[in-house]
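Most newcomers find our protein records easier to grasp once they have seen one. Sequence and backbone structure share a record, each on its own labelled line. To make this concrete, we reproduce a full record directly below:
***
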Amino acid sequence: MAQKAVQRTVTNPYRQLFAAPGSPGFALAGLLARLPLPMTGIGIITLLAQVRGSYALAGAVAATFVLTYALLSPQVSRLVDRHGQRRILPLATGVSVLGLLLLLGASWWEAPTALLFVGALLAGAMPSMSAMVRARWTAIYRGQPQLQTAYALETVFDEVTFIAGPPLSVGLAVAVLPQAGVLAAAVLLPIGVLALIAQRRTEPPIDAAASTARRDGSVMRLPSVRWLALLMVAMGVIVGTVDVVSVAFAAHLGQPAAASLVLSAYAAGSCLSGVLFGAMKLQAPLHRWLLLGGLATALTTLPLWWAGSLFGLGAAVFVAGAFFAPTMIVAMSLVEQQVPARQLTEGMTWLLAALNVGVALGAAASGQWVDAHGVRAGFLIAVCAGGAVLLAAMSAHRRLRLPPAPASGDA
């Protein structure tokens, strides 16, 4: 009987992961709380395209939200590391919801365009809920093999929200009311955040030396973190390019609805590989896995350029997606090793914010490239970004081969 129990634990590491008290609750709350992020950007575009009739304005306001989020979310996470999730998350969430409501009101009453941008700026105070949940897993499983499994699970959850969030937001905006997608995000965010912070026993404790964080400065001062952030930007460019060019590719072939199947293939490849990678017991050092992930990511962008049919493109993006989740899991694990424990949430948030910036840049650049040079040429952006991923992985690998210098106050 004991042998069977051990075998069951080994073959199902995710069951072992949720053996920690309170873990199912905060994982589900975090899944709900992170859904508004992918809903908001596309919700703004769908809303303003309908009520203002301008995709240029819609894109500019959505970009304002994305870039503000990328800049503010690490600062919010830094405050969380210093003062705790329970004290900071309600404040940041309140500012973000206020911005979303201002944007909605400005669109409803046809207020001056400037108010739309003010609303987007305030909405960018939205906290990085993915980082908050990862911080809780780290507090439970720091230094244990289960932490890799937890990071894998959270990467899969990120993929799930980015699969479900945009169509939910667009569907509400088209079928119910132009403002409905953004409004749903404004409702779900405080519900998810409150559900998370209500679970106090799993909240990461504030480090006794957290008050010194003011003198520490940002974790971006660490070269290894900067290279990992650049790697995530490049990976985000690939994702943004695949999103835009796949839609253009399907439309060019006269099958625009098939774009959703292609994008689902990318997400499916990432989710499947993330689940499998999380169940593995890694023997090689993480910096070596990062280098392998960067190499594989670069190589798997090449078939995108050669795809000549929707089936071929679907197969190519499935393979490309299969290396996204493992590389992201390794990057998160390396941040956990590199940054002081009291600044972990900030470190993970910088990587997540960098990924979002990359997605926005990739979507914008590939869209312009497709307009100027044709559909197939759009994938050249992904190929170049794949090369950037490899270069960043090589640079980070050189930095990370040496053990991190001990930092005062690390746990």
Notes: The chain has 19 helices and no strands. The two ends are 38 Å apart (CA to CA).
